[in-house]
Write a structure and sequence with these properties.
There is one protein chain. By secondary structure, the chain is mainly alpha-helical. Helix content is about 75%, strand content about 0%. The chain has one domain. It has helices at about 10-50, 50-80, 85-110, 115-140. It is elongated and about 60 Å long. Keywords: Membrane, Transmembrane, Transmembrane helix.
Length: about 150
Amino acid sequence: MTEQNPTAPQSAGESFAAERAVLRVAGRDGLLLVAGLAVLGSIAGYLLAGLPGVWGALVGAALAGLFSGGTVLSMLFAVGKGPTTTGAIVMGGWLIKIAVLIGVLAALSGLDFYDRWTLMAVVLVGAVGSALLDYRAVRSGQIPYVRPDAEA
């Protein structure tokens, strides 16, 4: 007789609930990261570049939120779908995020109300921070690698 982990999900429905729980943690942490980026980035931006630094930090935090939130939302939508559909959702979401990023940067290129260096620094910290928070959420999640009820 094999011993089962009582906290491990036993059915596909429970597995999907566990995946959603991990994504909710990633989403919550992403929101906290974006809020921290907006506040701390604005302070640092103001000290380094004045009001344009604040605007650079706020725009950078918004872009970081777009990427972090877009990833979590696309993955929440993909939970329970097959691998091909999940791949299409993730790739489509990524393409949309890149198109929005290019559009925002193109629209901002001729404007001078923000500091470009602050924007770049906040987006960079947001991207790295979001990836680390997503990794932490997945690593600490209770998602089984194999579902016992899955057919061979």
